[in-house]
Amino acid sequence: MYEDKQNLNALPSPDYTQIGEKPKKRRAKKIIIIISVIILALLIIIISGAVILGLTYYNNIQQAYQLSFSAKADLEASLHKIMNRDFKAGADLIKNANTKFGQAKNLLDQVVIVRRIPYLSVQLKAVDNVLLAGLKLTESGQQVVLLIDDITSPLRNESISYATITEEQKRMILHKIVASESLLYEVKKNIDEADAAIAAIPEEKLVSQLRDGISPLREYLPKIKILIDNSLPLLKIIPKVAGFDQERAYLFLLQNNSELRPTGGFIGTYGILKLGNGEIKEFDTDNIYNLDRSSQHVIKEQSPWPIEKYLEQKDWALRDINWAPDFPTTAGKTIEMYDKENKAIADLIKSGQPIIGEKGTVIDQVIPYEKDIFGVIAVTPEILGGLLKLTGPVVASDMVFTDSNYQEQLELMVGKLYQELDIPISQRKGIIKQLADQIKVKLLTLPLSKLPDVLDIAFAAMDQKQVLLYVKDPEVQQLIFERGWAGEIKQVDGDYLIVVDSNMASLKTDQFVKRNINYSLSWRDDDLIGRVEINYQNNADFTWKSTRLRTYTRVYVPLGSELINSSGAMENDKIKDPQMQAGQVESGSEFDKTYFGAFISIEPHEKGTLVFEYKLPSKIKDQIRINNGYKLLVQKQPGVMPDLTLDLRFGKNIKSANPAEPEKEWFNNSYNNNLALDKDKDIIVNFK
Hints:
The chain crosses the membrane at residues 31-58. Keywords: Membrane, Transmembrane, Transmembrane helix. It comes from Candidatus Buchananbacteria bacterium RBG_13_39_9. By secondary structure, the protein is of the alpha+beta class. It contains 16 helices and 22 strands. It has a seven-stranded mixed sheet with strand order 15-16-13-10-18-22-20. It has a six-stranded mixed sheet with strand order 14-17-12-11-19-21, covered by helices on one side. A hairpin with a 2-residue loop joins strand 7 (394-396) and strand 8 (399-401). Residues 1-21 and 44-55 have low confidence and may be disordered.
């Protein structure tokens, strides 16, 4: 037994590590093969899916691209139809474009997975926004074109003019304009959404083709938005002002800007204009002295002291009523004085006393009194130039008036020729009524295709304050404010400036005077100093209509400004004050502004300068130091277009400015610019 055990122990031990090795290797290999097959299958599925998905996405993108270009072609075709007054066909094409934009957007909405890829997602999002803008624009475009089609349906005849449209047709047109208000506010909403969609597209990271395609939208959409925003107030203004369903009477003032006054010019002619359902029911004008001369000495309202001193008019009258540079204030005062003077005339007639007009002449009658004045319309003769350019030459009182000679011809007749023609002085301004009537006839008989040109002239004149409007209706007046046609002294939080000249008995000299306003800003220790320098160059001669310039000038600046220095003020001109004493500077406050005023006189072919230097209030300093920005509003006086030079030294580097400076002035700490003050100017500067 023992030996058997020893023998057994002597036998070699089995190698258990070898047991099952070959089966395990075969199994692992099999698993690897299976996994590989599965992975391969998955890859094939994924790749196949990606190919199928890619083809689907490619087809979607390609179809969307084709639909978008087809929509673009429809829009271009619609413009052609609209220009040819085929509004319904134009609207149908816009509707087609809208449908195609919608289809293109639906196709792109299905492209989901690609949107998770950063670069591609930016491109697709941009296209989404473009299509959204296209949908909003075409939806609005169709509505507007159909509205135009409805409103203009009575006006399709090529030979039709405003004069040939019946009053009932005009009333219906005004009615449709009133009824369209809610629709056009919906259009405004769509335009705003389209503008926001385009504004949200990043300017960087876009492929060049897409960037180039979006560029026109970036340029034109804001302009369309401004057009809509500016047009909407007209929906309320025009029907009420034009006498829709209720006749409106206006006090008409012709302000001669050759004799400059605060709201545009000397009021030499007044009148009554009546409008009803878009028609001129009545328009009568007269020499303002016929109403003024007798009544002003009955009323005995004291004139503002500069009028009393420099015009030697103790009693205030309608012709000088526009002393306040804020036109709504002047308009209210004008209606008040018109009422007083007419009542004074009525009392004189009742008592059997004669009506005394200009230079002591006896007047038979004045324009019948209109007690229900709805508003005031003040114009300068400048608007006649644009209208005569459109109508062509007009003949009145055997004189030919053109866009280049109307002012000279009017001055010749009113100031000199009437004497040679034995026209009574009280009737010397009858030529103005005759000229207005002839221009009206020509305008009303123009083809309606010229109506946009007439509106362009009118809107430009109102933007430049050659026409000012005031109405008693608060809602409409607010819209006139918003449109910029009220001629008010505006209220702003930032810096402010308006220079207001008033001709003080220097004939029609202002037409020969060149003006330049220099405004500078600088720090002096802890004070912010404003400096206004008004340079006058009198290019007139001594003639029957021109002489030395005599002007009382007021400068309105932010409330709380303190005058620290001035120069150029005179006591009077060299004839009335041979010693040429220095004048005093008046200081005061009104219209939530501080003002400084002074008199200056400048001989023909000489220059003169008024300077006002003042400390600006803390709120303007804080704009620059704390708010890191600066705003300045320079308002234009109606009736004159001076040059404006700005030298604003902030002591801080400028990041951006609007309007932009000339390129040579960039990259420093001051703003320097030369601008034509043809309308109010907003200057906005941001600092780094």
